[in-house]
Structures are given as structure tokens and as C-alpha cells.
Design goal:
The chain is α+β, with helices and mostly antiparallel strands. 18% of the residues lie in helices and 18% in strands.
């Protein structure tokens, strides 16, 4: 979807031994619509892991996330254009773990969000 009007935010952090900012593969995602950041304290992943049940995605979520982890990682969260951010974000369309395992649902829900 090279012409799609989307924004993508990618948050990287340490989950495995050897994961570190100096080895972060920034070049893997090359697109002007993508913003990438390194989150050493895993603040974003920890927040989403804690609040995942509060998000209430309108098109469903993948409930197979291993709850033993301390942060939501290798996951996607898809928000619609009307999403607002307050104490808990609204406008969640879907989420999935792992990105590769749930990529078909992500593609379907992205098409839905784009009106295709």
C-alpha cells in the first residue's frame, strides 16, 4: 500500500539477550510514514501489556499472547483515524501477537480501515 495515508509507529526494546540499541535494525523498515524509536525501559510495552484488556478492539484481538512476559512485544495494534489518547486510547480496531503469525488479520483490518 505505497500510497495509503497511514502512520506507523514502531517501538523497539530489549527482550532477548543481545537485543540492544546499537544493534537495532533501523534499516529494516524504510518508509517516510514510519517513525521508529528505542524504548530502553520498555515503558510502551509494559503499559500496553498492563492495559491490553482495556483496549476493546472493535474488530477483535488475538488473545494468545503469553501473559508471562512483562511487556507487549512482537505485536501490532491497529487504530482507526478517530482514535483519541487519554488514560486509555480509543479507536483500537485490532491487535495481534506475533506480527508474523497474525499478519493476515492485520492486512484484512488495514484494508477495512482504509475503506477498501
Amino acid at each position: 500500500m505505497p500510497a495509503a495515508d497511514v502512520r506507523v509507529f514502531v517501538v523497539w526494546f530489549r527482550m532477548y539477550p543481545g537485543d540492544e540499541e546499537s544493534r537495532w535494525p533501523r534499516e529494516i523498515l524504510q518508509d517516510r510514514r514510519i517513525v521508529q524509536t528505542w524504548d530502553e525501559p520498555k515503558a510502551a510495552g509494559r503499559w500496553f501489556m498492563t492495559h491490553l484488556s482495556d483496549l476493546k478492539p472493535s474488530r477483535g484481538g488475538d488473545g494468545k499472547f503469553p501473559q508471562r512476559d512483562d511487556a507487549l512485544w512482537d505485536s501490532y495494534l491497529l487504530f482507526d483515524r478517530s482514535a483519541t489518547w487519554s488514560s486509555t486510547p480509543s479507536g483500537v480496531l485490532s491487535w495481534g501477537f506475533t506480527v508474523m503469525r497474525t499478519r493476515t488479520k492485520l492486512a484484512e483490518d488495514l484494508q477495512y480501515a482504509l475503506g477498501h
